[in-house]
Amino acid sequence: MKFTAQQIAGILEGDVVGNPEVEVSKLAKIEEGKKGTLTFLANPKYKSYIYSTEASITIVDKAFEPENPITTTLIKVEDAYKAFSKLLEYYNQIKFNKSGIEEPCFISESVKQGDNIYIGAFSYLGDNVVIGNNVKIFPNSYIGDNVTIGDNTMIFSGAKIYAECLIGNGCVINSGAIIGADGFGFAPNEKGEYSKVPQTGNVILEDFVDIGAGTTIDRATLGSTVIRRGVKLDNQIQIAHNVEIGKNTVIAAQTGIAGSTKIGENCQIGGQVGIVGHITIGNNVKIQAQSGIGRNVKDNEVLQGSPALSYGDYNKSYVYFKNLPKIVKDLNEIQKTVNGNS
């Protein structure tokens, strides 16, 4: 699909400087722009590229004035970065604007469907599933019995949502994500073997939750594993049974959270963090990558290391740790001197 500079300026409420009828059909980085592509300039570090880019259209701040000749048509806006982000969102809406039901797929007769939905080929929708308006379910997806999916949610190819789970409005579940698999519950018996503890709960995703590719969220043993409104989870994260994550918390890839841990609101958790079960992490907590959390954490703490220390204590300790060989050598020299004088 092609758009003119004038059409794009209308979407962004910007002004065209150059040819308003020039057309673009692709997006590009400014240093890689070619004819027919649209790009943007927000970081002054890339300013030199605007004089060499072959992109047909470039979005810039209103204050920008070229110092040398340019060939690209400009669209001037209040904030080039925000405008480009808005355009990406608009582009995705068009890109994923599918509707209808493809064949073959299985849809139970008891499924309740909203308006303007899309169900891709080879998908499975079980008994009593409820689908809201404008939901997009891409091919090869599995939706188990009694699942509810809110309005404007997108479920990408190969995602699996087990029975009884509740998905809110405006959620995004990426390919390979598994919502509602059994929690890791086993009890040892007198023979030293392990018997499975039935996992009878579900998973609840509140509104505007994003789930990355390959991320798994286990159903509760009893009750619900709950991911609150606005949470953003990266790829390949493991959330165990009965975990609760507070609203607007973000978690980076390869983090693992053990069962029944409660995480507060507005937390930022780096990649490859390990969090033990049955603890509470407060609001506004920041945890650096590869940290190990084995205790309750108060509001506003910043942690690093394994086991994790406060960020300031960790950095102070690391100064000594990296100099440990020299410190030990100096101590040995002192000991030799003391022993020689005794």
TrEMBL record:
One of the entry's Gene Ontology molecular-function terms is: UDP-3-O-[(3R)-3-hydroxyacyl]-glucosamine N-acyltransferase activity
What top-level class of enzyme does the UniProt entry assign? transferase
Recorded hits in Gene3D superfamilies, A to Z, give: Hexapeptide repeat proteins (2.160.10.10), MurE/MurF, N-terminal domain (3.40.1390.10)
Q: Which reaction does it catalyse?
A: a UDP-3-O-[(3R)-3-hydroxyacyl]-alpha-D-glucosamine + a (3R)-hydroxyacyl-[ACP] = a UDP-2-N,3-O-bis[(3R)-3-hydroxyacyl]-alpha-D-glucosamine + holo-[ACP] + H(+)
Under Pfam families, the record lists: Hexapep, LpxD
Write the record's keywords in alphabetical order, separated by commas: Acyltransferase, Lipid A biosynthesis, Lipid biosynthesis, Lipid metabolism, Repeat, Transferase
UDP-3-O-[3-hydroxymyristoyl] glucosamine N-acyltransferase non-repeat region domain: residues covered: 22-89
Query: Could you tell me which NCBIfam families the record lists for this protein?
Result: lipid_A_lpxD, PRK00892.1
* Function, as annotated: Catalyzes the N-acylation of UDP-3-O-acylglucosamine using 3-hydroxyacyl-ACP as the acyl donor. Is involved in the biosynthesis of lipid A, a phosphorylated glycolipid that anchors the lipopolysaccharide to the outer membrane of the cell.
Subunit architecture: Homotrimer.
Q: Which family does it belong to?
A: Belongs to the transferase hexapeptide repeat family. LpxD subfamily.
Protein name as annotated: UDP-3-O-acylglucosamine N-acyltransferase
Q: Which organism is it from?
A: Microcosmobacter mediterraneus
